Amino acid sequence: MLDGTVRVQGTGPGALSTLAITTAREVFDLLREDLEAIERELGRDAISSVSTITEIAQYLREGGGKRIRPTLLLLAARALGYNQRGMIRLGAVVELVHTATLVHDDIIDAADTRRGRPSANTTWGNEKCVLAGDWLYMQAFHLALEERNFKILDLLIGLTQQMVEGELLQIEKLGRAIDESEYYELIYRKTACLFSVSMQLGACLADADPIQEDALAQYGRAVGLAFQIVDDVLDLTATEEVLGKPVASDLREGKTTLPVIHALAHGNDEDQRAIHWVLEDGGFLRSKPDQIQQILLRNGSVEYAMAEALRFANQARSALAVLEDSEFKRALLTLPDLVVARDH
Predict the structure, then answer these.
(1) Are 234 and 344 in contact (CB under 8 A)?
(2) Among residues 38, 69, 39, 95, which one has the least CA distance to residue 335?
(3) Are 132 and 53 in contact (CB under 8 A)?
(4) Can you tell me the distance from the alpha carbon of 53 to that of 94, in angstroms, rounded to the nearest whole number?
(5) I need a labelling partner for 256 at 20 to 30 A (CA). Which of 3, 20, 264, 322 fits?
(6) At 296, phi and psi to the nearest 5?
(7) What is the pLDDT of residues 191-230, one digit of tens each?
(8) What is the CATH number of the domain that holds 327?
(9) For the chain, give me the number of helices (H) and strands (E)?
(10) What is the tens place of the pLDDT at every residue in 319-334?
(11) How many domains does the chain have?
């Protein structure tokens, strides 16, 4: 789960009117019973008649995770007054979709570790894992069908298309520098669209009006962009123990993230050359990780990326002006800051 204590000062539309000190524990305690119900649902839904699929799904579920996507769905639904089983079912759906993307990501990236453990594909192999990922996608759709709601299916189909397109676009851009517009398109498709659709699904369950649904979708998009920017910063600045994978894995794999884009735009010729060497070599052969970290720090690239994450956090809070005040809206107002403040 997210952790830490964050001070939130209300200054704009939809912001808290007084200074609040809120911990992630308080946010998640608000949803404890719902999240526990989603965990039980996942335990039931990730079982197949083929034992290998069940084993892989169980292994992935035991790997933990922040469950932020189901949390967003729950908060969206409850902020609009919904309190029925559909939010538990769809909470499991978005987590199954997320898990399926992780399986496929690890195969595409040839990753050895995930959250400090061997990735599933290192244990079961790529062939079995790609099929297990496909099964998880289909199981998510099977569960969603129980809502008997075409709009929910339409949202999930559009989401899956966006995410697959995002993976293909990223593969096309590996090993070369991209600009900020390309970066934001990629992280929207790969990360933020699932955050946005999670909010929309909660709104859909609650029969939200179009203005409310659009506001919640915009909130999810902004939180998702902030989340991925922070992920990309941590990949370059945190320790391997914290990350559960090698430092600068993204750059090593040829992915140009926001701090790197900024350093390429503002660094000197030597800085640019050192970064391009990593992209060209597909690893740290001519440049070293600590050298890249120094380049990022010297050019203020980490600070720039974190400022962008904070900008999106503010955007997210502003989008909530259309909601009536409630403990669930207050949790949504706090969540962007918790996303930006996290250290893993």
Answers:
(1) yes
(2) 69
(3) yes
(4) 18
(5) 3
(6) -65, -45
(7) 999 999 999 999 999 999 999 999 999 999 999 999 999 9
(8) 1.10.600.10
(9) 18, 4
(10) 999 999 999 999 999 9
(11) 1
